Amino acid sequence: MAVTSHSYRTLGMLSAATIAAIVFWLTAYPTITWWDSSQYSLAASTLGVTGPPGSLLLTLLGWVATRLPFGPPAYILNLLAGALTAVAVALVCLSALRLGGMARLVDETASQAEHRALAAGTALGALTFAFGDTLWEHAIKFTPYVLTAVFTGLILWAMLCWWKEAEQPLAWRRLALLGLLFGLDFSVHRTNALLLPGALAWILVRHPRALRDPRSWLGGAAGLAAGLSVQLLIIPIAASTDSILNMGDASNLTRFWHYVSLQMMGGGFLVDFFPRKAPFWSVQVADLIRAMGSNFLRWNGLLGPLGILPALLGLGGLAHLWRSNRGLGTAFALVLFLQASMTVLYFNIPANFFRPFDRHYLPICVTFGIAVVYGFSVLLAAVAQRATQRRRVIAVLVGVVLLLVPISQLTANWAERDASRRHFARDFARNLLAGLPRDAILFTAGDNDTFPLWYLQEVEGVRPDVQIVNRSLANAFWYVDQIVARDPAFPTSLSREQRSSLGLREWSDTTVVVLVEGTAEQLGITAGTSLPDTVMLETPQPERRFVLLVDLLMLDMLQTNRWRRPLCFSVAVSEVGLGWFRPYARLDGLFWRIIPMENPSLDVEMLSANLLATYGYEGYADAAVRLDAVSRNMGLMYHAPFMALIEELRTRGSEAGCRAAATKYLEAMPPARLGRDSSPSVEEMCGPG
Predict the structure, then answer these.
(1) Based on the domain organization, do 239 and 351 belong to the same domain?
(2) Within-domain flag for 215
(3) Which of 88, 417, 584, 650 shows the greatest Cβ crowding within 10 Å of its Cβ?
């Protein structure tokens, strides 16, 4: 019977993990997407160093995966994310089963029906957790957050193992394992460090004398040190990588410390509990409650009210655990409470932050997910224990209802989470690169117009002739050093020492005269156009008070470049970001090109070629492809060049050209899909035909 019961539970756990993995793989992104996905996909593909705090273990796992000949690297990495998430689901099952064993939910003398019910409850609860909003969101793209969930599951499982052995002489080895897991998590995303107070409370409730045992402290400290030491691998990677992604250049101990301590971001370890950046209860706690509700307490979906059962079963599971084992129930509830409290205190989010923080709540979802799985198991086991002939119909009904709960989660979230046809990030990057002139230097604004472009260049070999300069990173001396090291012909006259001597200073009224060299064709201007001998750049005031390193770098580049390489700016760069060059910027598509003529006219031929022939718009007009908020906002960047082209053609009296451009715009980028208030017709934009 013991073997049979164990087999049932193993089968339930493996079934849940397998079904979850299949769903995640079916809905995975086929390529990179925005934010962390493109950065970490680039790092894994090229063995690069991501921005601090980084995720070294994820990068190494991904680097191994991309060596496998199973498809495009980004897609392989997204499948890896699904596999890791399935491991997290299995760990949630394992921990819930261990809780059930410690609470004597079903003993070995129980009937096979009871063991089957326990296994079925575990599987259904795990699938309910798997198909929650936040876990599924990150299971389909390569980011650190699913590996964080795996480590949350490992840490909680290790804590449960210690609980069972706490009074045994060798229990300190479990604490050494716990220390190792916390140390290794430092090389993932560090969010699980917020479990440390909960782990301490766990020990105090179960066996406080363990804290007086030197072996516990030495074992835990040794495990932690061993785990933390893995982070030292960043030094040789940063020193030897040829990846374009080498944030902070942590190639020696000093720079390594600046990297891991986040000093390069200006905040040390960024422990900033007070003052609060937003009202604590109405904004910060409410945001956590909102995120938890979207995973475990929701009314929408095919089966509507069943969406509240995960929360109810999780709370019921906690209550049952407390009644069955007061110490264990108290300790588990304390872990969950302290984990949630520390998360809210640590992240200290401002109101209306530009990115949701749900990814940082994922470890809390894992902890509560164990309670949810346990609650499912309790209910089905109780029904099986009481399932007499007369009550068998009730037992079947309860089983059917619980079966419908993960189905409800699945149907409610499928349309939102199915990313199998979303190519928006890759298409934006390809479009931007494809339209640029040969050997261009492109200034970008942030993550979403930088990392996808780098990925295409470094991994897929798209437009390697283009030099991308991220404006934010260009204020860091190490980043400019890396650009010059990779491209010795990069147009700058400033030595490394000169760059490092430049500091923040106030703008002063300045006018810089730059000679114009080259032919009209070389400068991207219509042949035969009369060129000025010089252009005059004036201080871009009063938008900003201080001059930044990037401002001086751009000015030096223009003077040193002598118009040999085209200087361009992504449309994501604001007009303020154009700085000195604003009067000389010409909109050629998804980029501005700097032209040695003040207020240059549009190059209609160039703009038409990019918008109407070169660029692709897959998915924007397809109502079956969900358009997420970031893809919608990035899609809006096509609006300005389209409107500029349509207006110019209309002004020139080119009715056919105007109507062709307007038709392409409305068909490829429907304004309603982009969230615009109005959707003008071709006649409204170009006049009646």
Answers:
(1) yes
(2) yes
(3) 88
